Amino acid sequence: MATKNFELGDLVWAKMKNYPFWPAQIVNPPVVNEKLDTDRGLPKKKPSMSRRNQHFVFFFGTRDFSWISDENIVPHSEEMVNKEIKKKSASYVKAVKEIVKASRGEDLFTAGRWVPKSLRKG
After folding, report:
1. Is 15:68 a contact under the CB 8 Å cutoff?
2. Centroid of chain to Cα 48
3. What backbone phi and psi angles, to 5 degrees, belong to 91?
């Protein structure tokens, strides 16, 4: 299977087992400690390894993160926003509102944290 061409910051819908497609954003994977830097006694940090045919995503609404297989990720679209699901939890409704705001440039997830437009500089 070919890797999908998602880029950092892309708004997407990602599916985990037992959940509907959920609003998400492609983000950097977490930083992991590798070894101690013996000169300074501090841990060396490096990004966790990229996973083949997977992307690391931030889930709107729940603020959770996960590695998701490319086959379970689709680009954000109006069609996905309007798609009917059987049970709409409060966190799902919140997630949809957040991805719509993010698609308008109102709020976004950046540098490892959620940044409402009202708090951004510039």
Report:
1. yes
2. 15
3. -70, -30
Tokens of 31: 């930083």
Largest CA distance in the chain: 57
pTM listed for this prediction: 0.73
CA angle 39, 41, 46 (to 5 degrees): 90
Q: Tell me phi and psi for residue 73, to 5 degrees.
A: -130, 135
Distance CA 30, CA 91 (A): 24
Phi, psi of 26 (to 5 degrees): -70, 125
pLDDT tens per residue, range 97-121: 999 988 988 766 654 555 545 544 4
